[in-house]
Amino acid sequence: MRQLLRQIPAIHELQQDQNFLHLLETSNVSKMKLTEWLQETVADIRKELLAGDFPLENDSIRISDIIFKRLSDRLSYHSTYKVKRVINGTGTVLHTNLGRARLSDQAIKQVVETAYSYSNLEYNLNQGKRGSRHELIEDLVKEMTGAEAAMVVNNNAAAVYLVLKAFAKGKDVIVSRGELVEIGGSFRVSSIMEESGAHLVEVGTTNKTHYYDYEHAISEATAMIMKVHTSNFKVIGFTKDVTVAELKPLAKAHDVLLYEDLGSGAIYDLRNDGIGDEPTVVEALNKGADLVTFSGDKLLGGPQAGIIAGKKKWIDKLKKHQLARVLRVDKMTLAALEATLKEYANEEMVKETLPTLKSVLLKKDEILSRIDKFSSELSPFWTKRVRSDVSQVGGGTMPDVTLDTALLLLSNSNFTAQALHNQLRLGTPAIVSRIIEDQIALDFRTIEEYEFADLHRRLKEFE
Length: 463
Hints:
463 residues; L-seryl-tRNA(Sec) selenium transferase; 3 domains; pyridoxal phosphate; seven-stranded mixed beta sheet; Aspartate Aminotransferase, domain 2; globular; 41% helix; transferase; protein biosynthesis
C-alpha cells in the first residue's frame, strides 16, 4: 500500500495527463471545478490506502488509471439529471411517487413561455405599477368554483396550515375523530394543527359522529369547525357523519368559521361518468363552507399547489398574513395552473385535453387498442399475453374505486421477471412496471402512444 501511495502523481502532473484533458474537453465543467474534484478523488484514494480499504484486484493497473476512472464516474453522475422522465406502466393515474398529474399540452406551453421570458408576475400591466401574484388567477378560480375569492399556496398541506394558523392559533378547532386522516409521508391533520398553534377538539368516534357531538363541543374558545374529506380511505358499515350543509346553521349561530379540506380538488364531476363519489369544489362551497382547500396536482390535473377558495373576508385576511409570502408559488406554477383551469371552460373537451381526466376516463376497449398497436411491432423474441385487471386513480384519491383495464404481460427466456423489472427501472427513460405471474406487467392506461417508440427501444435491450 505504501508503494501505491508513492505512485500517486502530483495534482499538477495529473492535470497534464491526456485523460484529464479529454475529460475537460468533453465535459461542461470548468478546469477549476474539475481540478477540485480531482483533488477530492486523490484524497479519497489516499485515505483508503492508509486505512487498508483500497480494492485493487489487478496489480498491473496504474494508480492514475484508477484516479481517472473515478473522476470520470463523478463527471457522469454530475451530468445526469436527478429528476428524470419516467414511463408509468403501473396503471395508477395519479402516482404520488411518479409526480402525480401530468400537465396538458397548453399548460406545458404556458410554462415554457413564462420561464423563457420576463412576465407580469407582480406587475399590473393595466395600471403600470406593482401588482399582486394573487390576482393573476383569482378570477379564474372564482369562475370555476363559484367562490367569492381565492388564493394559491405551494401545496394543500400548506393551505391547511395557513388557514389554521391565521384563524385558529391558540383557539379550538372541532374535528370528527373519523376525519383525523394521515396523508403520504406520515403527515397528519392533528400534527399540522399542533404546528399551527390551534387546539384540536375531537368529537364523535371513528365510525360515527353526530350533529350533537359538534353542538356539545362548541365553547367560547371555538374558532372553527373543520371538515376533512377522507379521500384516501373509506369507512363502511355502521357509520354516520355530519355534512357541511348540516353544520352551517351551527357555525353561523356561534359565529365560528366552517372550513372543509377537500384534498383531491375535483372540478369535473366524475360521478356523471359512473366513477366514484368524489364531491366537487363547487358542491362544497354551495353547501355552505366558508373556506375550502384542495390540491392542484390531484383530480384537478395541474401542478403542485394548494388552492384556498371561499368567502372574500377570510381570503383577504389570508393574503395579508405573513405566511402568505412564505408559502407563495412561483411564476411557472401559476402559469401551469392558469392553463389547467382554462381547460375546464369546455366540459367535453377537457376530458381529452387534460391528461388526468383522459386517463381516468379511458375505456377498456381503448386500452386494448393501445396494446394491439404496441404489440404489432413487438419482436417475436417476447412471450406475450393480455389479461384483464384493474387500475387505480391514486394520489390518495378514491381508494375504493377501480378502473377496468387490460395488461400486457411480457417475458423472455434470458431474464427473470425481477431482472427485467429492475433493469427497465434503471435505464433511460426509466420504465416502472409491475410483476404478475413471473412476467412484467404493463398497464397501457398510463402509457401514451408517443411513448411507444422509447418503450420498444428499451425492450430491444433485452433481446
